[in-house]
From TrEMBL, chain A:
<feature type="transmembrane region" description="Helical">
    <location>
        <begin position="128"/>
        <end position="147"/>
    </location>
</feature>
<keyword id="KW-1133">Transmembrane helix</keyword>
<dbReference type="InterPro" id="IPR001851">
    <property type="entry name" value="ABC_transp_permease"/>
</dbReference>
<feature type="transmembrane region" description="Helical">
    <location>
        <begin position="167"/>
        <end position="188"/>
    </location>
</feature>
<feature type="transmembrane region" description="Helical">
    <location>
        <begin position="20"/>
        <end position="40"/>
    </location>
</feature>
<feature type="transmembrane region" description="Helical">
    <location>
        <begin position="298"/>
        <end position="316"/>
    </location>
</feature>
<feature type="transmembrane region" description="Helical">
    <location>
        <begin position="217"/>
        <end position="240"/>
    </location>
</feature>
<keyword id="KW-0472">Membrane</keyword>
<feature type="transmembrane region" description="Helical">
    <location>
        <begin position="274"/>
        <end position="292"/>
    </location>
</feature>
From TrEMBL, chain B:
<keyword id="KW-1003">Cell membrane</keyword>
<dbReference type="InterPro" id="IPR050107">
    <property type="entry name" value="ABC_carbohydrate_import_ATPase"/>
</dbReference>
<keyword id="KW-0547">Nucleotide-binding</keyword>
<dbReference type="InterPro" id="IPR017871">
    <property type="entry name" value="ABC_transporter-like_CS"/>
</dbReference>
<dbReference type="Pfam" id="PF00005">
    <property type="entry name" value="ABC_tran"/>
</dbReference>
<feature type="domain" description="ABC transporter">
    <location>
        <begin position="4"/>
        <end position="240"/>
    </location>
</feature>
<dbReference type="GO" id="GO:0016887">
    <property type="term" value="F:ATP hydrolysis activity"/>
</dbReference>
<dbReference type="GO" id="GO:0005886">
    <property type="term" value="C:plasma membrane"/>
</dbReference>
<feature type="domain" description="ABC transporter">
    <location>
        <begin position="260"/>
        <end position="503"/>
    </location>
</feature>
Length: 322, 511
């Protein structure tokens, strides 16, 4: 097959669409939904509304970034919501030593959870879904023990600034999420680590035989995912100005996985779409917002979300089966 | 009358015309060889015949009636069975259950009649040379035996047509004989067989008719006995016959210049792994190609993997350039200069979803990066170098490796190994399942690399390749070294004798 024979052949439409849908369908859906809202939803473009949407989506984006990396290795991390709770529970405990100390402690908790997850997956050889299920259950339990099961109010201004403050007209939360998106996109595209991660997802035995330290890479991936989750956890505390280990990050693993899948990252590994993941999170947020604005019941919102997930997975399957 | 026939079919994929006006007819009781290089359209034609693909044009006729197989199931119900290179059965279920899957015998109450199923399974499989306990899990059987189960299953489903895609690629010689016996039976029953193989010997032994595909077109069809072997190869390759004659069937040129007293670049001593390897030892000097001979299951692949750090060993040492590897892992082996090409290219070699570029660069990323950031410029340099040197045919470095032909996939894999600048190359079946043209190229590459001073360990089930390619052959049996052929003794006869001597002993065991 020569390159010119590829170039001169006119597009085979169906095949084009099949290749295009999982990669860019999410962007098209966002554009359509925004156009619809601009036309039919009063005050949709009001800054106050956009601001709320962005603030609400930020934590999902942050968690989904880590999830995308894990899914890129053909794994999954169910423990992210519990890690958020753990980070949230630790914040009030150490805030007395200063904001920096409290943040560091909750990040370290993230590192430790990631090490446990990564070790179980890479060294012990457990299935990712089972390995992370342990801390999905245990992590929140631990968080509740640490917090004593109580809701604690946070009065630290620096921390509150992270959650509710503005910088150059945009919420700090949005800045932080955007920065993390850039960092993760850079990791995936430009670093040795990123390439190895994709190779592991694409064919682990082959990557191992190529002399790549597969276990180390895998453990690092789970650590990054957990650290991102603990960042999301401490930001959640900063935003609502209280720490509630029983509520923070509840069910976020599902939102994160949804964002990743809708964004075009295949669950079979070997490929990570970072911007697609962000778009996936935005789309789901937009769907919810649209339905609420038009006074539709939450049950129908959920059904629309389900439909989007099915479309995304179906599109990915079509691409795979060629 | 044709049993199964396609007339003027075309099949197109984005960017490739896989089949272009192909006509093919299979008569009852005929063993019809389907040959061609990888990418010639064999697999596509088979998939059209079995309902996996719908042709874009042309007609499919079955027993002289136009048919349309919407799914593989439709084709199977009509009596067309396919046996693939890889066994498509359920490894965790018993042999008998696999054999009867979906058609289990039932008692009057509608319950599974296990007694009858086991009895019948045993009877059926004995005809295929499989004498194992049918209650065993299928996955615990040798690959050859699994393939026989697959074949028995295919024939049981009232097959009128059996399509065999490289059925012997994982069979031992003895199993090949059993398979040929079965094929003759089928032939006598009037069942039509489409036989796909790269092994010319087999084709001439078992096939009546041949159809040769090249670039999606039929270039020849007719009686196989009337077609000279060299003509078949030249038709397949589209090369001049005199060139084929001049260059021979393999790409090897002969002996390698090795100083007999040179210090070995690879030394393996006392390699032992429970039940699998027993005290295996040999040495490879720079510029030398050492073959590992033996039957399937003799421990050749395990030896290769153990040296490469990918197979657990209980004791024994591996030394590269006189330096012993401490606790070998794949990471340490690669760092020490050992490059391993695994037997199973798809499962352990290529990363199909990644591009040619990523696949080639995979093992050397640290060298092509600074502070953990990869340099596209350096990667492109290496990738271009090896794509040129190995003549990798891809639309570009960005093409997915999974979309390349088998031969080009293998070249990408070799490029990855060579990019690590190894001192020792471990090659496990480097030319299995790749077309004749790529095969010759890979073989001459092995020669060339040895010429540059690499130590090469070569495993091949193709006796011709092993004999012509290797300077010495170490023969294994049951995970132990049983002999070594050197110099003038490196002949097919000597190899077969050594293996056969081993096989006699084996037969007297509890086989």
């Amino acid at each position: 097959m020569t390159s010119e024979s590829v170039a001169t052949r006119p597009g085979v439409d169906l095949a084009r669409i099949k290749a295009w849908l999982p990669a860019y369908g999410v962007y098209a859906a966002i554009v359509l939904l925004v156009l619809y809202n601009v036309a039919f939803t009063p005050n949709f473009l009001a800054w106050g509304n956009l601001r709320i949407q962005l603030i609400q989506v930020a934590p999902v984006v942050i968690v989904a970034l880590g999830m995308a990396l894990v899914i890129g290795t053909e794994g999954i991390d169910l423990s992210v919501g519990s890690v958020m709770a753990l980070a949230a529970a630790l914040i009030p405990l150490y805030l007395g030593y200063g904001v920096i100390a409290a943040i560091l402690i909750s990040l370290i908790a993230g590192v430790l959870v990631g090490l446990v997850n990564g070790t179980l997956v890479a060294r012990v050889g457990l299935q990712p879904i089972v390995a992370t299920l342990a801390l999905f259950v245990g992590g929140r339990g631990l968080a509740l023990v640490i917090s004593g099961g109580q809701l604690k109010d946070i009065g630290n201004d620096d921390l509150i600034f992270l959650g509710s403050g503005d910088f150059l007209g945009l919420p700090m939360l949005v800045w932080i999420a955007a920065l993390l998106v850039l960092v993760v996109a850079f990791i995936v595209r430009r670093t040795v680590f990123g390439r190895r991660l994709l190779a592991i997802g694409g064919n682990r035995p082959a990557t191992e035989l190529a002399g790549v330290p597969v276990k180390r890479v895998l453990i690092t991936v789970y650590v990054i995912c957990s650290v991102l989750a603990s960042i999301a956890g401490l930001l959640a505390v900063a935003r609502i100005q209280s720490s509630d280990a029983s509520a923070v990050g509840l069910l976020i693993e599902l939102s994160a996985i949804t964002a990743v899948v809708v964004g075009g990252t295949p669950l079979t590994g070997g490929r990570v779409r970072v911007l697609g993941t962000v778009a996936g999170a935005l789309l789901m947020q937009l769907v919810v917002a649209t339905m609420i604005k038009h006074n539709l019941p939450s049950s129908s919102t959920e059904m629309v979300q389900a439909a989007i997930i099915l479309i995304a997975v179906y599109a990915a399957r079509e691409r795979k089966s060629r | 009358m044709a049993l199964l026939e396609v007339v003027d079919v075309a099949k197109e994929f984005p960017g490739v015309r896989a089949l272009d006006g192909v006509s093919f007819a299979l008569r009852p009781g005929e063993v019809h060889a389907l040959v061609g290089e990888n990418g010639a359209g064999k697999s596509t034609l088979i998939k059209v015949l079995t309902g996996v693909y719908q042709p874009d044009g042309g007609e499919l006729r079955y027993r002289d009636e136009p048919v349309r197989f919407g799914t593989p199931m439709d084709a199977q119900r009509a009596g067309i069975s396919t046996i693939y290179q890889e066994v498509n059965l359920i490894p965790l279920m018993s042999v008998a259950h696999n054999l009867f899957l979906g058609r289990e015998p039932r008692t009057r109450l509608g319950l599974l009649d296990e007694g009858r199923m086991y009895r019948e399974a045993g009877e059926i499989l004995r005809r295929y040379g499989v004498t194992t306990d049918v209650r065993r899990q299928l996955g615990t059987l040798a690959l050859g035996a699994q393939q026989m189960v697959a074949l028995a299953r295919a024939v049981m489903i009232d097959a009128k047509v059996v399509i065999m895609d490289e059925p012997t690629s994982s069979l031992e010689p003895r199993e090949v004989e059993t398979l040929f016996g079965v094929i003759r039976d089928l032939h006598a029953q009037g069942i039509g067989i489409v036989y796909v193989s790269h092994r010319l010997d087999e084709l001439y032994r078992i096939c009546d008719t041949v159809t040769i595909l090249r670039d999606g077109r039929v270039v020849h069809t007719g009686k196989l006995a009337e077609l000279e072997r060299i003509r078949l190869v030249s038709l397949m390759l589209g090369r001049d016959m005199s060139a084929v004659r001049r260059e021979g069937f393999t790409g090897f040129t002969g002996e390698h210049a090795t100083a007999a007293d040179a210090a070995p670049v690879l030394e393996v001593t006392g390699l032992t792994s429970r039940h699998k390897l027993h005290d295996i030892g040999f040495a490879v000097r720079p510029g030398e190609v050492v073959g590992l001979g033996g039957l399937l299951g003799a421990g050749r692949s395990e030896t290769i993997k153990a040296i490469g750090g990918a197979y657990p060993v209980d004791s024994g040492t591996v030394a590269v350039g006189g330096k012993e590897l401490k606790r070998p892992t794949t990471v340490r082996a690669v760092r020490a200069g050992i490059a391993t090409q695994p037997e199973d290219r798809k499962a352990e070699g290529i990363v199909p979803g990644l591009s040619v570029r990523e696949n080639i660069a995979l093992a050397v990323l640290p060298r092509l990066s600074r502070f953990g950031l990869v340099s596209d410029r350096k990667i492109d340099e290496i990738v271009r170098t090896y794509m040129d040197r190995l003549q990798i045919k891809a639309s570009g470095p960005d093409q997915r490796v999974g979309d390349l032909s088998g031969g080009n996939q293998q070249k990408v894999l070799l490029a990855r190994l060579l990019a690590t600048r190894p001192r020792v190359l471990l090659l496990d079946e480097p030319t299995r399942g790749i077309d004749v043209g790529a095969k010759a190229e890979v073989q001459s590459l092995i020669d060339e690399l040895a010429g540059e001073g690499l130590g090469v360990v070569l495993v091949s089930s193709d006796a011709e390749e092993l004999i012509e390619g290797a300077d010495r052959v170490v023969v294994l049996r049951d995970g132990a070294v049983v002999g070594e052929l050197r110099g003038a003794d490196v002949t097919t006869e000597a190899l077969l004798e050594t293996i056969a001597a081993a096989a006699v002993v084996e037969d007297s065991g509890d086989q």
